[in-house]
Amino acid sequence: MGGGGSSTRRVTFEADENENITVVKGVRLSDNVIDRMKEPSSASGRPHSQHRSASGAVNDEELKKRIAEELALEQARRDSEAQKRRFFGKLLERERIASNEHLTRAILRERAATEEERQKAQRFAKQLEEKDRELKKHDAYYKEQLARLEER
Length: 152
Prior knowledge:
The protein is mainly alpha-helical. It is built from 2 helices and 2 strands; from the N terminus they run ββαα.
């Protein structure tokens, strides 16, 4: 009745309540099945309708079973995909949180290093000012000494 592969395929149903016809999309039907489907449903039109209805019932049951299996496979695939999405979503969220924490720590380290550099620069500026004052004192002292020596 259809392909012999193990691949899953999408199957959809539509029911027409007025004509009691079920439309199955995504299922291959043989020409024999299509011919039987085209036959009128009344038993008076065909002499072998008893045989056909019994065979049709078996084929209908088999078709329903295959369709149910296909639907179950499709649902299992969807569930598997949903589970994968949830798993990878959680993994992605954990990675994002870890990345944010790492970034926050790096920013804090950088701020601390910047503050340390600023304080170090202030200390050096004060030391430089002190040296400059000392040099000016020495300069003044030596100029005074030179002036005394020149007076003598």
